[in-house]
Design goal:
Length: 397
């Protein structure tokens, strides 16, 4: 691929060949070299490979700034296990400029693959990401306004509008909340033989192609390129072409199952990590409001827990679905997304990944713990919790 000084792709070409890695470098190793600490592997590559790559990334950054793709900042959790498989720490994975460099080139390669197959008039699977629904945007706007920010209304939504909202929250206590809420307002990306564009990346033509192949969709695109260029008999078969839409649905569904499995696994590890800290107090922020209770994201680990409605306070709370708030019938206390809370961990169930919390303070204001009947919320007794765990294990088996 050739790009100009503004990061616009001038041309590209595809070949069928074998790649030989000159270094097999890892991200931290490359970043250290560019930051002034090269090792024996990176030193010979610094001036002729690594620095030119970073300069090219700088040009792509100018193109990125012009098209304004959705700029979410969501730190990835890193769960460290010991040799026995027990969680020893939970932290946020470091994100380096080297990661962003590879992402930029991967995105451009995916664009080039889609454009090439469109030029060749060959069938392929596009990566499709449609714009969010009106209902999800209204919910995002409610959270933004409750946090003191604004999201433009009454115009065709562009990613630039969402980026302005995220920029308002950047550096504030609502930063992570607005990033998570914006992500939740997005539609899920999927694969399809028809091209509906990629809203999040602000790209018209996009197909997952990146080598080495990681997804079945990548394999479809590689085979389409082989067929399109006449590089051999192992391209897309007539059967592949005929069943392309069915294949797209199968791999989209598989991707969703994979993501759900990853979330469930992380939740279970976090619950196991916190199981020894039942009774401890944590700071967090309300991330969701439902009729049955409040969802809270804990600051320390990023874990999500539930405050059952019976553990919120001594009064009755009215649920307003439109504003996503709970309103106390006696005190008029309004509880909504984004508010800071102090909670006590009442229950942690590793087998399900469930965390049950008790609300102690909201925005620095102490609440009287207990249910509407005046009884303090009581988690299950150890014997009851163990019985439920055994039942769940039997059910899962």
């Amino acid at each position: 691929m050739r790009i100009d000084a503004q990061g616009q792709k001038i041309s590209h070409r595809f070949v069928r060949g074998m790649m030989r890695s000159a270094g097999s470098l890892h991200y931290a190793q490359v970043q250290a070299a560019v930051d002034g600490a090269p090792d024996g592997m990176t030193a010979p590559l610094l001036d002729r490979v690594l620095r030119p790559l970073y300069a090219a990334q700088g040009a792509l950054g100018r193109a990125r700034a012009a098209r304004q793709p959705l700029d979410l900042d969501l730190p990835e959790r890193k769960i460290v296990l010991d040799d026995a498989g027990q969680v020893v720490s939970v932290a946020y994975r470091e994100r380096l400029e080297a990661h962003r460099l590879i992402e930029e080139f991967m995105i451009l390669a995916n664009v080039a693959a889609a454009e090439e197959l469109i030029r060749l008039k060959r069938p392929l699977l596009f990566r499709v990401h449609e714009e969010p629904s009106v209902m999800k945007l209204d919910a995002l706007r409610e959270v933004a306004e409750a946090s003191g920010f604004t999201l433009a209304k009454g115009q065709v939504l562009k990613t630039a509008h969402l980026n302005r909202l995220l920029a308002q929250a950047e550096g504030t206590e609502f930063d992570e909340l607005m990033n998570i809420t914006t992500l939740r307002s997005m539609t899920q990306a999927y694969y399809h033989p028809e091209n509906f564009g990629h809203f999040g990346l602000a790209l018209r033509n996009y197909a997952h192609f990146t080598s080495p192949i990681r997804r079945y969709s990548d394999l479809i695109v590689h085979r389409a390129l082989i067929s399109g260029h006449g590089w051999g008999g192992d391209g897309l078969s007539p059967w592949d072409v005929e069943h392309l839409e069915e294949t797209a649905k199968l791999i989209s569904d598989a991707e969703r199952r994979s993501m759900a499995a990853e979330r469930d696994t992380t939740d279970r590890y976090l619950a196991a990590y916190l199981a020894d800290r039942v009774g401890s107090e944590f700071g967090g922020r309300i991330s969701g409001v439902q009729r049955f209770g409040l969802f809270v994201k804990l600051d320390e680990t990023g874990a999500d827990g539930l405050i059952p409605i019976r553990a919120v306070g001594r009064e009755y709370f009215h649920y307003d679905e439109a504003s996503q708030t709970l309103m106390g019938s006696d005190t008029g206390l309004a509880i909504g997304i984004g508010q800071r809370v102090t909670v006590r961990l009442a229950e942690a169930v590793p087998v399900t990944g469930g965390l049950v919390l008790e609300l102690l303070e909201i925005e620095g204001r102490a609440l009287k713990a207990g249910s509407r009947g005046g009884r303090r919320y009581q988690p299950r007794k150890p014997a009851q919790a163990a019985a439920k765990t055994r039942k769940l294990v039997r059910k899962r088996r």
